[in-house]
Amino acid sequence: MSPTLRLVLILAMAVYFTVLLLFVRRRGLNLKYFLLWLVMGAALFVLILFPGILTAMAHLLCIQSEMNALISAVCFFIILLEISLTAIVSRLNDKLTRTIQQTALLEKRIRALEQALEEQERDA
Q: What single-letter DSSP state applies at residue 28?
């Protein structure tokens, strides 16, 4: 990997971490999700800082160049993030469904109590 490319990638990672911290600071990103993005970013940063790891990974996986190995690693991390975020969305969807069902039952109960109260007022 050329020194110029490494410098550009390091600067890109600095921007990545800065944006990540700004999201957390402005409460745009929950801390547990921040940690997920931070770990993935840190792993990529290590691959950029130590190109020997990329070279070994490329050789092990029979990939021709370090950049192809880096792009493959980025794709792998994106897939991991997508799976993690899909699991999070699925849990939130289930939670939302339960909340909607509980709210509907409470509304039904309130309507029944209101009708019972109206009937008592009519009888009195």
A: S
Q: Is the pTM of this model over 0.85?
A: no
**In angstroms, rounded to a whole number, what is the distance separating the alpha carbons of residues 103 and 95?**
12
C-alpha to C-alpha distance for 117 and 124, rounded to whole angstroms: 11
List pLDDT tens digits, range 42-77.
988 888 888 888 888 888 888 888 888 888 888 988
User: Largest alpha-carbon pair distance within the chain?
Assistant: 90
Contacts of 37 (CB under 8 A, 6+ apart): 20, 29, 81
Handedness of CA 70, 76, 78, 80 (dihedral sign): negative
In the structure encoding, which two tokens stand for residue 52, read together?
């020997």
